[in-house]
Amino acid sequence: MGKVNWWLWTKMLVAGGGVIWGGPALVRYLQPTDEELFQKYNPELQKRSLERRYEREKEFDDFVVKLKEQAKSDKPIWILQAEEEKANATNMARQQKLTESLRLAEEVKARREAMRKEAGLPVDSGKQGK
Fold this sequence. Notes:
It is a single chain. It is built from 4 helices and no strands. By secondary structure, it is mainly alpha-helical. The relative contact order is 0.03.
């Protein structure tokens, strides 16, 4: 076993401490606060940011509430989120199909009325007498 070089160990501990504590301290010192960043925005961006702040906070609150509800389940959160996304995609697809069907029905109705006008027949007002 050799002689312990205490000077080397001291230098290494000081250098390690400087990196471990000094690096994050330097980042905190140099990183601007949210207010400083906001003040650097041009006035139009500041106005838009203030207008959308409530919406963003509401979206975030909804997200947190949803996470809390999902956390109560026995299933992992990522599985619950995948199931929810799948259900939302299915609902959106169903809604798109319904919208497309309504649009096509309106198109067919408009064509039918146009053909009736061309033929000189009375235009159906949408109500059929029984």
